[in-house]
Design brief:
The protein is α+β, with helices and mostly antiparallel strands. The protein contains 3 helices and 7 strands, in the order αββαβαββββ. The chain is globular. It starts with a helix and ends with a strand.
Length: 96
């Protein structure tokens, strides 16, 4: 389910009882966005995305979109000038 930026922002902060996020992966994507905004990966120059995670790009990156390659694995890989960030529905991992 690919969400546009407006819908994602509406739903990203909403949780059900028990701390379950309404949008799968919303917490991971929100945290990854903050890391990118703080300069944790540098300028993103390349990405790899599945069909379901490609919609996250517009939310994560406000600037120009990097060259992006399609992958089968359900994750988003952002290659920056300072680090690589892998985001999926369970969380994110940063490799420096």
């Amino acid at each position: 389910m690919a969400l546009d930026r407006r819908t994602f922002l509406k739903l990203a902060g909403l949780k059900l009882a028990g701390g379950v996020w309404l949008v799968p992966g919303a917490a991971a994507v929100w945290e990854a966005r903050e890391l990118i905004r703080r300069g944790g990966v540098g300028r993103v120059v390349f990405c790899r995305a599945s069909g379901s995670t490609a919609g996250w790009l517009r939310f994560l990156l406000d600037g120009a979109m990097p060259v992006c390659e399609r992958i089968e694995r359900d994750e988003l890989v952002l290659c920056g000038t300072e680090a690589t960030l892998v985001v999926d529905r369970r969380g994110y991992r940063r490799f420096a």
